[in-house]
Every structure is written in structure tokens, then in C-alpha cells.
Amino acid sequence: MPTSPPGDERRKRRLALVGGSLGNLVEWYDWFVYASFAIYFADSFFPNDNPTTQLMNTAGIFAVGFLMRPVGGWILGRAADRHGRKSALTLTVTMMSVAALLIAVAPTYGQAGYFGALVLLLARLLQGMSIGGEYAASATYLTEASARNRRGLGSSFQYVSMTCGQLLGLGILITLQHTLTTPQLESWGWRLPFVLGALFAVVVFWLRRRLQETDAFKEESAAGEDAHDDSTRGTLKALWQYRRQAGLVMALTLGGTVAYYTYTTYLTKYLVGSAGMEKTTATLVSFTALTLFAVLQPFAGMLSDRIGRRPLLITFAVGCTVGTYPIMTALGSASSYWSALGLSLLALVVITGYTSINAAVKAELFPTRVRALGVALPYAIANALFGGTAEYVALWFKNSGHEKMFFWYVSGCALISLVTYVLMPDTRNAALSRAEAEDGAEDGAGAGAGRGGGSTPDQDRSAAAPAEAGR
To answer: Global pTM?
Structure first.
């Protein structure tokens, strides 16, 4: 493949990245705004007895939302592999809009008892399904829509948009904190961001309807029609042939997802509950740190396009394994905005080694016909078990009087991923389509990838076998 595609091709890729990223931003805004505003609506849905217990209840519902992510990953990942990335992306944002609206109108405990908590739970389950499919569809779309030598850069925009979605939520929170009183926020102000989320999703629905399908999917779809053999595309049967790669996705996700949710969604609560910071100060720390974190992602993605994926992953895992305990301990004693910001940035710089490229790594492990499902299902399972429960586990340790045990828990998860990164081969040169494989063969980059790119069962000699063309 030429290093610099023609002008029309470059414009097409830019539009695809912008369209996919903006939709992803709104999806994750709706997902994260729940965690950002939980400190204000925790007592709206549960009896007012113990503040930590209320947060644990809302965190529990946050975690339950993750349990639906494997379901959403399976259903929507299958849809993305069979009907296209574009159709799956459109469906996910529709589901998220409905869920945000449900949260916005949910009755409080004082109005309807636990019925309000039930509505909240149903909305989070729907959001879980949506995000389960959104991650895979956007990871696959952004990776496939990027030039082969810029996939690290292209896929990094997934976490840029994810983080910008969280920043949008935090920005609205900061604005409301300075325009409304605390009683107003706790009474009705917390509903406003969910109303906005539903409206944003409607705009994104219109945008995603106008996205172009990726060349890799169109090539695979045409090949399936010609061969009259696409009945297993996007199925669990097809994924079973790549079960080692699926296991690899779970292992390499484990440490990254726990660390990410620790230093993003849980950070504000930790600074308020353990360091004793004011809510407004803790929110500002998170907002500033995440802004700089988002800026770092493309640079790390470009670096991976030059030196490979494994060096960045290994750097993250070593830093997280060794650094979590001292960083979290110091954050618990942080007495000022600047000290908390510096420590938070240090942690997020380390995590960038995972967040900037994990979408590309996962997509590069699978062929087109099962790529979205292969990314979605194992990733969603790992998130349901570890990412979604990170905040709840942290609060559980705090409530039991052993808060620092959570720091070792995060380090242990990172250590497991470190072993995985050390043993896996690099996926940077994997071909995601037949066209890429042929161009790679002409350039001496490696053998052809076969239909749809990716590894094949016969050539899957290790749990981390990269795409055949990347060999």
C-alpha cells in the first residue's frame, strides 16, 4: 500500500475518523456521566442512612451495567460482522439515547420507593448492551478505516473520543456546580446531563447514517456472496476457531481496564472520600488530567506505528504494577489541587501505553469475518468481570477498613497483563484485508493474509498469533 494515499482517499479516511469518533464521544458521555454525577444523585434512589453505602449501591448498578456488555458485544458484534460496522454503530447510539432518557425521568426513592432504582437499573442494562457493541464497532471501524501504517494513530481516537465524552460530562458538572446550589443539584440538577445526552445521541444518529462502510468489510461481504458461504460470519462458531486470540484479548484487557476505571471514574470519589477534597476541586483535578490524557493518545498511537505495539503495552504494565501503590497512597494524602493533578497525570501517562493502542491490537488479531465479534465479546467479558467492578471493589475495601488492599489488587491485574504482553507477538504489520495483504506481499512485508486478513486456525501457533500477513 502506498505510504500516502491519494487526496480523495485521505479525505475519506479523515471523514470516517471524525464521524466514528464523534459518535463514540456521545456514547461514552452518556456512559460516564452516570459515574460523574453519582455523588449528587446517590441519595435520590436509596434510603438516606450511610453515604458510603449509597455510593456502593449506585456503584453496584454501574457494575451491573457491565454485565450486559458481553450480551451487547455478542449481539451487536455479530450485527457488525454480518451487516456492517455502520449499521451497528447506528443501532448502538439509538439504544444509548433511550437509556439516557430513562435515567433523566426516573422517579426518586421518595416519589416511588425502589421503583426509581429499578428504572435506573434497566437504563444501565440498556446502556451496557449499547456500549458492549459500541466498543467493538468503533474499534473495528476506526482501525479498518485507517491506512495500514497509521492504524495506531487512527485507533487512538477511540480513547480520545471516550475521554472527550467524559470531559464533556465533567465540564457540564463543573458548569452546574458553579450555577446551581448543592441542594438544587441533588434535587433536580443532576437530571440535566442525561437530557442533554439523549439530545446529543439524536444528532449522532443522523451523523452515523451518513458514514461510509469500511473497505475491509465491503471486500469480505463481496467475497462471501461470491462464494455463497457467509453463513458463519460473525457467529460464535466462527469465533471458536480463534479462541486463543479471544483469550488473549481478555488477558491483555484485564490490567488496562482496571487501571483505566481506577484513575478515571473512581478518581473523583477517591479524592473526595479518602483525601478529603472538596467536590469541586476533585472534579477540576479530573477534568484537567483527562484533558491532557486525551491529547497524549494520538502521539502514543503514532509512536506504536513506528516501534510496534508491544513496547508501549509492556511499559504500561510495568509502570502500573510497580507504581499503583505509591501513586494511590500519595493521592490519598494529597492536600492541594496541584499535588493531586501531578499524581493523576503520572498515572494517566502510564495508562496511555494501553489506552492509545488497545483497539488496534485487538482488531489486528482477527480476520474481517469475525473481527467485530472477536473484539467485542472477550473484551466485554473482561470489562464485566474487572473494569465494571473496579469502583465497587475499591469502595468495598474502603468500607471494610482495608482500602490499601485495592491498590495491590490493581497491581496484580496489571501483572497478569504484563505476562501476556511479554509473551505475545507484535501485531503492527498485520493485514486487515486481502488488498493490504497483496500490497504487503509486493512490498516484501510478508505472506498474503488470505480472505479478510487475520490469523487462521492452522497458523495459530500461540495464544497471541497475529494476522498471517503480519508475520
So the answer is: 0.81
